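RECORD TYPE: inverse folding
INPUT: structure tokens
STRUCTURE:
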């Protein structure tokens, strides 16, 4: 039941580790399906039959990861749009780069688009894979990294000041 929630529900929160595992599994599955369908089938409907559930899972897990960062799950649509635009842009760029004469204005537009999309992609990666979620429960649910039976930690928390500089009377 936990796997069904993880893969198909848009409610709750998921931490970085689970998000990374699901994204790597989706990437591996996509690669295997792409190779299999490319070699053994040319039917377009089979590609979409495989892609639609994978897109749903990707959106659901991304929404939960954004919830962990205390962001609305609707930002997953923006993440999806940036990813698709990058995919289309680089396909267009590499398609046009070989032997097509482009004006200077078009080339400048392509370069500016590459910079903007690269910056957006970099922020998406930092936000989803590197920044930790909000501490404790937030409006989307409990902290996925908290253990339910852990006692409250009463030890002094680090302040950023080295211990030898703090006087202890």
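DESIGNED SEQUENCE:
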């Amino acid at each position: 039941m936990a796997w069904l929630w993880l893969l198909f529900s848009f409610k709750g929160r998921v931490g970085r580790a689970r998000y990374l595992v699901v994204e790597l599994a989706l990437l591996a599955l996509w690669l295997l399906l792409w190779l299999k369908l490319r070699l053994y089938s040319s039917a377009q409907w089979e590609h979409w039959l495989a892609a639609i559930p994978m897109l749903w899972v990707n959106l659901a897990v991304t929404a939960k990861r954004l919830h962990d960062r205390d962001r609305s799950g609707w930002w997953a649509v923006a993440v999806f749009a940036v990813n698709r635009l990058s995919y289309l842009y680089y396909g267009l760029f590499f398609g046009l780069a070989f032997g097509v004469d482009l004006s200077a204005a078009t080339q400048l537009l392509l370069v500016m688009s590459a910079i903007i999309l690269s910056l957006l992609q970099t922020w998406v990666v930092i936000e989803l894979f590197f920044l930790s979620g909000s501490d404790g429960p937030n409006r989307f649910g409990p902290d996925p990294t908290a253990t339910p039976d852990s006692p409250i930690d009463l030890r002094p928390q680090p302040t950023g000041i080295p211990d030898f500089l703090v006087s202890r009377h």
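NOTES: Residues 14-134 form one domain.
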